[in-house]
Every structure is written in C-alpha cells, then in structure tokens.
Amino acid sequence: MFKSASILLLLLLLLLTPPILTFFIPLPPLHTPTPLLSSPTDLLYSDQESALVTQATLEGEFMKPPKPLHPLKPGAVKSGSGFGGGSGSAFRERGKAIEKVLKKDGVVRINNVLSAEVCEKLRTFVLKEAEQRQKEVDSGTASTNDHFSSVLLRKNRCDLRLPLSPLVKSSLKILTDPSSDLGHLLHCTLGGIAPLQELATMISYPGSTRQTAHPDTPYSPQTPLLTIFIALQDVEKGMGPTTFLPGSFGKKKHEQFREDHDGFLRKAETVEAELGVGDCSCFDSRTIHLGGANESSEIRAMFYVSFKNPSYEYVGNPPSIKPELEGRFCIEDCGIL
Ligand SMILES: O=C(O)CCC(=O)C(=O)O
Ligand SMILES: [Fe+2]
To answer: What is the residue range of the signal peptide feature (predicted)?
Structure first.
C-alpha cells in the first residue's frame, strides 16, 4: 500500500498514538472556517489529518463487515434466574454474566441505562453547550482546549467536556446505582473507590469521517479505564456507530496491532454498536475500536464517562474532563453528588 517503509513507520507511529499527537502539535480550533495553512505546525497537522483520513478509509474497505453488538442474551444467564433486576440472586447471576462478557470481549452492551426522557434532555443540553462553547472559541474569548478535548479525526467531530449540571449529576447517579446492571458492573470490576476520570460528550456531526482503529490507552496488564458510551438518540448504521474489535485488549493483540497493523485489522472480527436511545457500550480502554463516519443528516451525540482503575496513577492518555472535576469523585460519590 505504502511505497516506502519509512512512510509506513511514520504513519503507524502517528496512528498508534493519536492522543500523543497533541503533546507535540498544538491543535487549531474545532469547527472554525478552514484557515490558510501557513505555519509549519498547521501544515504538519493538515498532513497528518489527511494521512489519517486515507488510512481510516482503507481500513473501512479491508476490515471485515461488523456484526451487531448485542446485549446479553437471556440464555446466557443460569436458567430460572430471570431478568428482574435489583438485588436478588437473578440480578447477581446476570451481573456475573455481564462481567464475563466484558472480561472476554473487552466490551459489553447494556440497554436502557438511561431513560429516553433523560437522554433527550441531556442531548438538548450538550448540543447547546457545544454550540455556546464553540461560539466562545470562534470569538476568541476562550481557546479550544478550555472546553474541548482533542479528538481523532476532528472534522465535524468534537469531544466536549461537561459541567456538573443538575442533569449531569442525576445521570451519574443513575449510571452508578449499584442496583442497576451497569452500576453493579462498575462496582464489581473497579470498586466503589474508582475515580471518575472522564465526563464528556462525543458529538459527530453529519460529515464526520471514520476514525482509524485505536485503543484509548496503551496496553497495560489490567483494565486502566472502563468507559461507558451512552446513546443520546438512536444510533443507526449511517450515523457512525462505534465499531469494536472484541478481545483486542490483550498484550499479544496490541503487539500484532503495532507490528502488522493492516494484517491484524484484516483478520479481526468486528462488532458495531447500533444502539437505541439510552443504551450503552461499556468497554475496557485497551480494547481497539473506532468511531464511524456520520453519513446521515442526524447529529450523533454520545454522553460518556470513564472510571479509572484505582490502582493506576496515569493511564497514558490525558482525560476528557473539566480540570476542576478531575480526581474529585469516585463511583460511590456519584450517588450523593
Ligand atoms: O465516536 C465514537 O464512537 C468513538 C470515538 C472514539 O473512540 C475516540 O474519539 O477515541
Ligand atoms: Fe477511542
């Protein structure tokens, strides 16, 4: 595909470390009119971005078509344990089954973690917040980094850090409730003292392009973060659902991904999170995944939160959270915010 090994090497280096890019190259603002590319930094950024767009398009062509990411099948839970929810043995059995899927695949889908009503309010809130923050950036009263985190393939896509508004607080409370499937999973896998590491929204506007496949954090022996992506509206195929590579979080998989990038991706099984409003994908940050292209006319807004393994200091990637909220709350605190 690429003519010289050094170009390939450089590209791979760039592809495999998307967040690191931002350490070296200050990013121009999001959603601003395309500036005249004059400075070496601008030119370098623009070259990188177009190399990534090309790579992501190729990946989309040669990777296997995704299967749907399904929630747990009722049959996966011990017979007779039912699907009641709450605190009984059926609930615990289901919890174990959900945890097993996460441990094996590095991603699990849980439906209805927030109600459609809450999601609709959150969606209105985050879209308005994104618009206002972008206006501040455009008018020069704020810089992009004050409100937005860097994002891979940023054309028509943004990662907006969220304030702890009453609605966000009550959503966090619902998501971490230990008597819900998701809350139970969070408590069981990370423990109540796991810090809230990210509190943001990923918005892909119509016209956003496919991301290159990536893990959010480099390989490490344990789960560094559990990230929960919640659909604030139905996410249909053309809206660019997240694609995951189940089981791709391990050391060997990360080595293969680094050393034989395209070969690894060609062979990988993939699943796609076409979600209903309020459904979530919960994934280990080492799991390789990508956001799809939004080819629809609908905005795709995903509310997301990450919780950090309490035994980790730095996970290898700067968190998307307002700096004043960083490290302030843990899972247990979310119930009493
Ligand atoms: O938009 C998505 O579904 C995924 C985004 C993502 O993985 C990222 O920006 O790191
Ligand atoms: Fe990601």
So the answer is: 1-22
